[in-house]
Amino acid sequence: MSFSKHTNILCGIILICTLVLTLVFINGEALGITVISADAAEDEEGLFTGRDKDPSYDEDTAIRIDLDDLEGEVSGGSYELDGDLYIVQGGTYVLSGSLEEHSVIVNASEAKVQIVLEGVSVTHSSLPGIWVQDADKVFITLAEGTENSVSSGNLDGEAAVAADVDAAIWSKSDLTINGSGSLSVTAEGGHGIKSKDDLVITGGRIEVESDADGLHANEVLSIMEAEVTVAAKDDGIHADDEVNICSGTIRVTESYEGIEGYFINIRGGDIYVTASDDGINAGGGSTSEFGMMGGMSGMNAGGGRSGQFGNKEDFSGEQSESMEDFTGEMPELPEGTEDFSGEMPEGGMGGRGGMRGQKELSGEEGRTWPESGTASGSESGNASGSESGTASGFASGAASGSASGSEEQTEIPCLHIYGGNLYVNSEGDGLDSNGDLIIDGGTIVVDGPSSSGNGPLDSGTESGGELIVNGGTILAIGSSGMLESFAGTSEQYSFAVVTEEGYQAGDVIEILDSDGNVLFTHTAARSGSAVIFSSADLEENATYTVRAGDAETTVTLTGISTSSGGARTTFNRGI
After folding, report:
1. What is the pLDDT of residues 286-336, one digit of tens each?
2. What total number of domains does the chain contain?
3. Model confidence over 229-254: pLDDT tens digits?
4. Is the residue at 144 inside a domain?
5. In the listed set 329, 351, 374, which residue is the last one of a domain according to the structure?
6. One-character DSSP codes across 405-421
7. Residues 455 and 484 sit within 8 Å (Cβ to Cβ)
8. Kind plus residue range of the DSSP H or E element containing 24
9. pTM for the whole thing?
10. 403 and 316 assigned to the same domain
């Protein structure tokens, strides 16, 4: 009887303790207690993990391999076989030296591998130089102060086709590139850097020259705090699912389409795009014949390849002198933005905040986004440790609702610009979305097409998409043949005008207020007649002047979106 009594008391105490612990766990944050879970170190944005951003490693456990003296090498989880370096176990491998006509091959099932490039040159005439056949995730770290190169040729040839590979750096698994060193990648007949899963870049100076896409991810491609320069015959930067650019400097000096993905989110950074078709395209669509590995470069709407934008000799981040209409330098911006740092002068660029896209970005999937140019998260350990966080999945809110404002997730394509500095020079549409095109901030200049079959801005009205501006400063110029103005559901004032006499390449385009103050100025890269402008400085019922060369056109804002001189909103455009 006494035993039963004491047992009941003990059970009661356990029950009370369980209830107390449950209440503390549920209300831990309110009580100032941090609840630890398996995902405690996860980057809150879901784009970059602590390991993605941390290039450090444990020198004591790292395996050092000299590629110049590879024959017979067996170290830890790596070995040499027939001239190739195989890495078959997780860990950190520090490589130096040169490897010719052979590859660095990772085949480490379910393991995380960190490859530190410390002055490495890898070349192969028919297969990837770095080839990830299997792994949980691979980190390529560019050691500080080092120069590294990977080059592959004939990636559309028999050997590559048989191996089902098509890039100089090719990965079947998630791939991250970090560090502060430099990496030069050359790919003949294929992509520069490709992941069949996610591709993340969080640092380094990377130059890619390729016959297909420069950077390619089958799922999500995310970039922060890196300097990336791409010259590609097909897309400069491509993801089948989602592209995220949060910070850094991105230069696409040659491409068929500059940046392409179903969802594209630009949070910050300095971005320069040159394209013979669309500058930035959300939703995919047409591609060059090189994209199909057919051997010919992209064809424009007129039936021929549009302009050769640079070559190997001048692949240095600057534009080729052969491109007469564009110098490769960011056009002069208004006073206060000359340093082009991504920070706007006081009072400018504020807009009225995100309208519908912002609300949906915190939708049921829980995806949140960093402030412009930042990405938080735990700085966790080296390659032998555990990695926290994820970097995959669609932008749940980028697939915004229909044009009627419905909050239903329709998953139509979306190009969403939150901030940063963006310059686009394109023969096709400048900014193109087969769904929504939403601008919430940033400084954006589009030197759009001369062809009447394309426009500076193009949203997917045929799929229920809209062209929305809620903030930022935007100047988009080009042909008026397919001109689309911002929608009346925008939250920042804008206007679209068609100048009577048009303008030529080299003409200065100026936007002036009623007192003659210059709000924005830009030198046109090619001829056109359309001018689209939006800024937080615009006010309803105010009159503005568009000066193009010696001609002037005035427009009085009669609403949130005003069209003048024959400008109109177009509907049911195809891709």
Report:
1. 444 443 333 223 333 322 222 222 332 333 333 333 233 333 344 443 333
2. 2
3. 999 999 999 999 999 999 999 999 99
4. yes
5. 329
6. ---S-----EEEE-SSE
7. yes
8. helix 2-26
9. 0.76
10. no
